[in-house]
Batch of 4 targets.
Target 1
Amino acid sequence: MSLGSGTIAEQVAYLTKGCVDVVRESELRSKLEQAAASGEPLVIKVGFDPTAPDLHLGHTVLIRKMKHFQDLGHKVVFLIGDFTGLIGDPTGRSKVRPPLTRGEIDANAETYKRQVFKLLDPERTVVDFNSRWLGSLTSEAWIRLTARYNVAQMLERRDFRQRYDKGQPIAIHEFLYPLAQAYDSVHLKVDVELGGTDQLFNLNVGRDIMPGAGLSPQVVMTVPLLVGLDGVEKMSKSAGNSVGIAESPDDMFGKVMSVSDEMMWNYYELLTDLSAPEISTLRAKVADGDVHPKRAKLDLGQRIVTDFHSADAASTAEQEFERRFSAKGLPSELLERVVAVQAGGERLAVLIVRVGLAGSNSAATRLIEQGSVRIDGERVTDRKCRVLPTAPAFVLQIGKRKVVRVCPEQATE
């Protein structure tokens, strides 16, 4: 789409799809009308503190919303918070988050830049670093900035209030984080700022201080935190329920196929560019029996893998998935592990850890007892099962996606 294409109502519907908060929609409509009339694109900002090197699908909910504005011809600023990362975002924290080192920030920022362009158009994306202006603010400028907000307003933020009520310490520098984020909007003359629902307070601080700088308050739009593969917790690498955008097509496709039929629709809404009416139509077809739920989920996997790899990679991943899990076959490229086994044999649980399919002997034992372990397709539930060094090579499978060929050999003395 080009700037101003489609009716304003259609643009608003496209941009607000999947959003939780829009503060305020009437202002968004007005800004879009002004942009269409003047031909001047809106400035859209999203800030990312480079706290970890890898992005997962949960991060892409925001990035995709940036893409939607970009699709309509607006200017998107991918702002790397290298300065605010030194402060440490206190959002959702019961204690101070340790600040990152400059080396960690620089390394993570480089990986961010490589990954976001899987969705965003690099020719139409401004990548900036907020140290460029925040690092040069004088002491007087910082004092003037802090004078625009008061302690009572800061304590309206839930996590600050909870810590204050419990007598837990709140460092003064933590109050600087939302103010620094707000100043980013002032410096960039932002029209719309996007963030997760947990960022609503910080984003509204920008709205509050912009008029004092002679600017129209930014429109604030938040998107929900994506639920992870477990269907319970928000997606995060530490929770083990994430899908990394740098993962292989096969792994990405297989993980998407593991979500429940009901959660699939949430992923359609937040992780694809389909419009709300298109998703509603597809959902109705599934409910009426015109489209099988599995076919809808396969199409979801196709769309997501295509976005981060290619259409060919998505097609191959679907074929591999069907071969492995529908036809109960094995991966075309089966990883092989040679393991040393003592003369008297080794517990299967120990070998599961050695080949990297479990993190500890106790975890491996639980997998066996739960019936998640198969040897050459046969389920093994005996926790005392042992493997001899003379045993022939066998295929060890944990669940649906973890499969290796194990080659026992006599351990040397």
Target 2
Amino acid sequence: MIGILIVSHEPLGTALLNCTRHIYGRLPVQLAALDVIPDEDPAAAVRAAGDLLSRINDGSGVVVLTDVFGATPSRIARGLADPGRAVVIAGVNLPMLLKALGNRRSPLETLAALLIDSAKGAIIEVPCEPQAAHAPGEPDAQP
């Protein structure tokens, strides 16, 4: 099963792990996060990320999700990229993480393509709900 590693600005990765714990009732296996703190030594962070990647990879590969392309966490994650073994995708959010968790038995490259395609369609404007009708003389509903 494909491992998932989140490398992001502190505390996003841990927050996403907590969200998955909330949704699934437990922390899914082969899932880890590295929260990059301000002024962290990039070399130490790369070593820590590599250690996490090794722990969650059962040989099926790892998807490394990062937040902002070009930022320090992204550069750390990029150092983990290894064709056929570790794919790095920027723009992590909770829907992307849930999609990854639900499709980890796919081949690595198939999962990466699925995550990118689904992420592009996951950002939508939520339409306003119509105001509830109320009887004359009743006050308007309060939000």
Target 3
Amino acid sequence: MSIEKSKKTKKNKITKYIIIVVMVLLLLIVGVIFMNLFIKKKEVSETIDSYINENNYESHIQEKEILYDWKQGTYYGKVTFEDEPENYYEIYVNGNSDNVYVFGYNNNTNVEITNKNEGRYIDN
């Protein structure tokens, strides 16, 4: 009986070690994913801030937030300007470049603004 008990104890120890190793690997993978998302958010935020500063828009901003677009798998900025509270703008950074694209939308209808007279901050 002691031989069987010894075998069970060994199997339990091996099982515990395997579970610990798997859990540590899972934690590392999740940590790396979150770290990459955090770094990407910071990079996008810095690029958007640079774009806003280069165009002297910072004093006109009413509200700005960095959001994640799950469909496109990327971060973008959502900005509302004090002089156009009826509109909001989505600022996207193109991939690994510093190219910035700005799309304007009406707050009430969520329809994209394509006319510079209706949304002066859009890119054309």
Target 4
Amino acid sequence: MPSVKYLLERSAFGVCSYLGERMGIASARVRMYFIYLTFAALGSPILVYLFAAFWLNVRRYIKDNEKVVWK
């Protein structure tokens, strides 16, 4: 069961863990808030989540390229 949980967390783009680290709360609680907000707002937080995932991937891509250039 822990391997399934790790696989799901890793494939979820790391948005919840990033937000949890930045706000100083557990990533599981952030995931729970996303789930509750998704049901309450009829799915619109999913768009925010996907935008955050896209932005984190762009930031990671930029940081990786900066490291290669300056090596």
